[in-house]
Write a structure and sequence with these properties.
Layout (H helix, E strand, L loop, with lengths): L4 E4 L3 H11 L5 E4 L15 H7 L12
Parallel strand pairs: 1-2
Length: 65
């Protein structure tokens, strides 16, 4: 429960298991379901990687009356 997110680039059965287990506490996952990924090329450092590696949160602070 202390883990915030899981990235796994492994077989399809393991990716499916990770997603199923992470659903209990809405843990973020990024899995590839057994598909190959080129970590050295543009795919490894592109917008998809950046989107999975960051999370933007906003805070609303009421003030005044």
């Amino acid at each position: 429960m202390d883990v915030d997110a899981v990235w796994s680039f492994s077989s399809n059965p393991l990716s499916t298991l990770i997603e199923a287990e992470a659903a209990a506490n809405l843990k973020r996952t990024w899995v590839n379901h057994g598909r190959a990924r080129n970590w050295i090329g543009a795919e490894g450092e592109g917008r998809t990687f950046l989107a999975q590696a960051t999370e933007v949160k906003t805070v609303w602070v009421p003030y005044g009356e």
